[in-house]
Amino acid sequence: METGPDAPASRIAASEHARTVAEQTDRHALTLESVLAALRADRLSDAAARAEAVEIASAALVELRTVTDRQRSTLLEPVTGAFSRLRADLRPLVRFGDLDVQFVEPPATGRALPGDVAHSARAIVRTAVLALVDDGVARRVRIQWDCDGRNLLMQLRDDGAGTLDTHDDAVRPIAERVVALDGTMRVDSTPGWGSTLDISLPLDPAPGAVDLPDDSGLTERERDVLRLVVTGVGNREIAEGLGISPNTVKYHVANLLRKHGARTRAELAARGVRP
């Protein structure tokens, strides 16, 4: 067990690496499934099927080459934009597979998602849909996202055998990923009628992610701003994420600098991170 000063950092790095590998594995699996769906589509000629498969593979290759940069730059993402990207991820299966995927759009006024939550949410849904495809029983799945201001709420409902639970091999990896994000998941199944997965992912860091003593004298809003400053986002992104104006963010940041005795945002972020 690591006990040196670098132990927390190494565990965080290992966790981030595992998350990235898991997400890329899901993307590769989805790409291969989509290519196979196109090649097996009865209504496409051989030439058309090959052309579609090449297009899917090419798009996936471009996505693979740019995903790291996008993950680094996408610090906050509108919930509608994140959902649109999910639809794009699943489009090949919708067009050429046997699964009818129905999408229920989230409200446009929903709070912006932190980049890691948006990426993880899409990965969770992709994993769930691939599990349904592998099962071969379900013919329809309904995907719905919503946001209550503090959590991203996702629901997946299928018309399969209705025998899923959190202990199934297909569901366990999803549950583990949700728990790792401090989220919750409930599985309700009715034999012969299908299963429903209700997933909630928090949009803010778990308590203790930022070192804020009880006597710090910060308001609740200042705490919200500080948690986002620590992640490195700018005033505009903070304003969008919290639903306040950039000028209000500037006011809170100025107060935080004064209260922490910091001269720059970098110093403020460094003092706000728990050792």
Automatic annotation (TrEMBL):
Segment forming the signal sequence: none
InterPro entries the UniProt entry points to: HATPase_C_sf, Sig_transdc_resp-reg_C-effctor, Tscrpt_reg_LuxR_C, WH-like_DNA-bd_sf
Alphabetical keyword list: DNA-binding, Transcription, Transcription regulation
Superkingdom per UniProt: Bacteria
A Pfam family recorded for this sequence: GerE
The keyword NADP is assigned to this record: no
Domain HTH luxR-type intervals: 211-275
Protein name per UniProt: LuxR C-terminal-related transcriptional regulator
